[in-house]
Amino acid sequence: MGMQIGFTLLLLLVIALAASTFRILREYERAVVFQLGRFWQVKGPGLILLIPVVQQMIRVDLRTIVLDVPPQDVITRDNVSVKVNAVLYFRVLDPQKAIIQVENFLMATSQLAQTTLRAVLGKHDLDQLLAEREQLNNDIQQVLDAQTDAWGIKVANVEIKHVDLNESMIRAIARQAEAERERRAKVIHAEGELQASEKLMQAAEMLGRQPGAMQLRYMQTLGSIAGDKTSTIVFPLPIELLKGMAELSPNKP
């Protein structure tokens, strides 16, 4: 009975040693191995061997991590308070730095993304925040990538998801947009009046050079008037005709 218990304990010890000696890492995993507390090397993927008790390992995932940055209160350069949230895409390039240089690289990157989001967006006006989102994404990505490089982390992309405004600011923006549309309509109308006046001046000059053309224009106008349902037609009498009649008058002094 005692030999069976001893054999069972020995078998369990062998299984435990084997479990702590042989490790299998997937293709996207790496093992940061420490030997007696000191960094030894990065191993993987596949089957790796560890010396029990002497060596320990920490798994590191090399896949791209999608991190949701919670809404942040941002005061823009023109003193408008907004709430902005974003999504961050990053991955570990150097497992050794990610484990040794920072305690928790996931938490550290999340906190850094929040402070960087507030700092970068606070340097821009509200109009830039709403209209130049792609450029702001690039600015935040570059700042984060530069600061996380010491941790062996590559920030691939940053996307601003939502910009929340209070109701009063939404109404102010709507009034501003309406005023801008009215201004454009007035400018377009004024430009149209200017072009029409220029064309009328050109037409008047051309008709003035050719009296016959003026007479034809009178006849066209008379035809268009006659086509309408009117009881009275006012016929414009040319000045030249009056002059000719005056010259032929027998009472001419």
Write the layout of secondary structure elements.
Blueprint: H1 2-21, E1 22-25, E2 29-35, E3 38-43, E4 46-49, E5 55-61, E6 65-75, E7 81-92, H2 95-100, H3 105-121, H4 126-131, H5 133-148, E8 153-164, H6 167-209, H7 211-227, H8 239-248
Antiparallel strand pairs: 1-4, 2-3, 2-5, 6-7, 7-8
Helix pairs in contact: 3-5
How are the strands of the biggest sheet laid out side by side? 3-2-5
Report Rg: 42 Å
DSSP E strands, number: 8
The share of residues in helices is 40-55%
How does this structure look, described?
This protein has 253 residues and is α+β, with helices and mostly antiparallel strands. It is built from 8 helices and 8 strands; from the N terminus they run αβββββββααααβααα. The chain has helices at residues 2-21, 95-100, 105-121, 126-131, 133-148, 167-209, 211-227, 239-248, and strands at residues 22-25, 29-35, 38-43, 46-49, 55-61, 65-75, 81-92, 153-164. The strands form 3 sheets. The protein has a 3-stranded antiparallel sheet with strand order 3-2-5. The protein has a 3-stranded antiparallel sheet with strand order 6-7-8. α3 packs across α5 (133-148). It is rod-shaped, with a radius of gyration of 42 Å. The protein starts with a helix and ends in a 5-residue tail after the last helix. The relative contact order is 0.08. The model has no long low-confidence stretch (mean pLDDT 81).
